[in-house]
Amino acid sequence: MSSPGATTTARYEATWEPDWPLDLRRALAPHSRGAADPALRVTPEGIWWTTTTPDGPATARVRYVAGRVSVAAWGPGAERAGAMVPRALGAEDPVAAFDPGDHPLVADLHRRTPWLRLGSTGRTWDALVPAVLEQKVTTVEAHRVWRELLRLAGEPAPGPAPDGMRVLPAARRVLEITDWQWHACGLDGARRRALRAVATVADRLEPHDGCDSPTLQRRLCSVPGIGAWTAAEVVQRTLGCPDTVSVGDYHLKNLVGFALTGARVTSDDDMLALLEPWRGHRQRVVRLLLAGGPRRPRRGPRFAPTDHRRI
Fold first, then answer.
1. pLDDT by residue (tens digit) across 165-190?
2. CB contact at 8 A, 150 and 168
3. Are residues 50 and 130 in the same domain?
4. Using CB atoms within 10 A of its CB, is residue 113 exposed (0-12), middle (13-18) or buried (19+)?
C-alpha cells in the first residue's frame, strides 16, 4: 500500500458536510486522467489525490460517508491541500445564480443532476500540464504520456498512498527533462516546446488574489504554444469558471449542437451562439449536456492514437 518509511499519521484532518447530494467520483472526474492515473486513485478507503502546493507536494484522501466528507492529507503541502478539498468538490460554485430558462432539456438535466458542481483547485500548474499534453491528440495518447511523465520525474506520493502514486513534478524539474527522455515518454516537439514555455513562467501563471477567469486566460494565452482551448481547460479546473467553454475541441461543438437542436453544427461560433442564452453559465450547460444529454450516433472510424516514441 504505502512506500517504505511513509508516515501514516496525517498532517491535516478535517470533516465537512456539503449542503447538496455530493457525488465524490463525479466531482473529481475532471481531474482524473484515466483508470491508471498515478495522481488520482479510487480505493475502498476513499479517493486519493496528489497535488502540488506552494509549500511542497501533498497527498489527500477524501471519503464521503453518511453525508459527511472526511479529509486527511500528508506531505509538506498537507495543510493547503486539505483545506482546498471543499472548493475542489464545488463548495464555492455559484450554482444558485444559474437559471436554466425554458429549454426543456437543460431544465430537465439541471433538475436531475443536483450533484453537479464546478470545483476549483486554485492551482494552475496541476491543470496546465495535463492540458498541454492533451493538445491535438487522442485521450488515450495524452493519458499514456501523463503516466510516463509522472513515472519519469514525479515524486512518490507522501503518506500511505497506494503503490505507484506520484506527484506532478515541479516546473524546475520539468525543465531538466532532456529531449531524449521526452521522446521516450512519447511527447512530440510541439507539446514539448509548449510545456517548456509554461514551465519557464509557471509562478506567474498561478491565480493570486483577485485573479479572475479573463485575466488568467490572457496570461496563459501570452505563453507560446498556449491557445484558447488550453486556457479554457485550465480555468475550468483552477477557478471553477462556469462560463468558459473549450472552443477548438474536435467533438464538443457537435455534442452541443446535437443535444440542443438535434442537428450537427459546423463551427465553434455556431456552438457559442446556441449557448448564448446561458451566458455566464455556458460551461455549466456544457457539463449538464455531457452528464446526460443525447449523443449523436457515431459514423466512421475513430482517430487512432499516434505513438510518438516510434516516430
1. 999 999 999 999 999 999 999 999 99
2. yes
3. no
4. middle
Instruction: Give the predicted TM-score (pTM) of the model.
Output: 0.92
**What domain range is 171 assigned to?**
124-238
Residue 204 lies in a domain: yes
Q: Is 131 in the same domain as 90?
A: no
Q: Which residue type, as a one-letter code, is found at position 38?
A: P
Overall domain count for the chain: 2
Q: Hey, CA dihedral for 12, 70, 80, 226, is it positive or negative?
A: positive
Q: Is residue 6 part of a domain?
A: no
DSSP SS3 for 61: strand
Say how many residues make up the chain.
311
Q: Which residues contact 191 (CB under 8 A, 6 or more apart)?
A: 132, 133, 135, 137, 225
Quick check: is 212 in a domain? yes
Q: Are 151 and 84 within one domain? A: no
What's the Cα-to-Cα distance from 108 to each of 82, 94, 280, rounded to whole Å? 34, 19, 19
Instruction: State how far the alpha carbon of 98 is from the alpha carbons of 108, 111, 242, 285, 288, in Å.
Output: 14, 12, 9, 10, 12
The answer to whether residues 139 and 225 belong to one domain is: yes
- Residues 151 and 210: their CA atoms lie apart, in Å, by 35
The CATH number covering residue 214 comes to 1.10.340.30
Residue 188 burial class via C-beta count within 10 angstroms: exposed 0-12, middle 13-18, buried 19 and up: middle
Residue 244 belongs to some domain of the structure: no
Residue 4: the pLDDT is 45
Pairwise CA distance, residues 240 & 89, whole Å: 10
DSSP character string of 189-209:
HHHHHHHHHHHHTGGGGS--T
Q: Which of 187, 204, 238 is the last residue of a domain?
A: 238
Q: Amino acid identity of 160?
A: P
Contact partners, residue 208, CB within 8 Å, separation at least 6: none
pLDDT of residue 305: 60
